[in-house]
Amino acid sequence: MTVKTLEAINSLLEDTNSDIYVTGSNSKLMSSEISTYLTGRYVSIPVFTLSFVEYLEFRKNSNLPQKELLNEYLRLGGFPIVALGNFDERSAYQIVEGIYNSVITSDITKRHNITNFDLFNRVVRYIVENVGKTFSANAIVKFLKNEGRSLSVEAVYNYLEWLEKAFVIYRCQRYDLQGKSVLKTQEKFYLADASLKYCIMGFNPKSIAAMLENIVYFELLRRGYKVYVGKNAAKEVDFVAVRRDERVYVQVCRRLPEESDREVANLLEIKDHYPKYVVTLDELAAGNINGVKIVHLSDFLLSGGY
User: Fold this and answer.
1) Where do runs of H (alpha helix) occur along 153-291?
2) What is the pLDDT of residues 230-280, one digit of tens each?
3) Where do the structural domains in the chain lie, given as residue ranges?
4) I want to staple 263 with a disulfide (CB 3.0 to 4.6 A). Which of 34, 78, 234, 251 is the partner?
């Protein structure tokens, strides 16, 4: 989408009482620039990869049981082109890698004239390796320095911003539950789709645990929540999800009961009456612990509520 396209849309809005829907790649015009030309006259509708509900609809002719489709969703991700096909793992990741390379090349490296692609790619890999972990730009700079590479903090900030604007990564800020304020340090970043990690680093069954947060994070976004990482003194809550006057606290873990004490304890220390959940892949774990609901991932993804 070009500047001329937006100027044409703007002129149409002057002479019509209709709604105009515009889609397209952000490689030539980012969302921030769209607002410059259509100030106050547009509504941005975020589009994510498939939810599990949508994935089941795409795969309804596969005749696979829901449990197997969940495993497939966790392993192959939610890109529609992958869900529509009957691809093996290798082919699916090749497709996702092609999407990723197209975005990186067109929306970022060409647009921002990145000359040291190897260094940029190393920063991306660091982010992918640390999905769901808090880190700072300084941490990336120190990591690269240990590898014998040099990059300024400002350059790292630019890389993160460009990746975010191209919708490769999503920033999740921390929220101080005691001070009731959004913190500007030690943010987390999540990938637009879990398969982006696998196409870059390969799939390992152990890596699913690290990507569960990624899946839950986007499910909360789809439901219209503003999502934060919760800081409660020295304790951390995976997600504080806020939607108008509603609030939900969510902890994510792969297996119970070995992780239940810590996950539940962190939630119980929050002294309010908003709903609190532990989302897990443990098929035997379900119920209620002192008001904290234990929910299987599939039930959480299919609920449409919470």
Assistant:
1) 153-165, 195-201, 207-222, 260-268
2) 888 878 899 999 998 899 999 998 887 655 677 888 888 888 889 999 999
3) 3-37, 52-303
4) 251
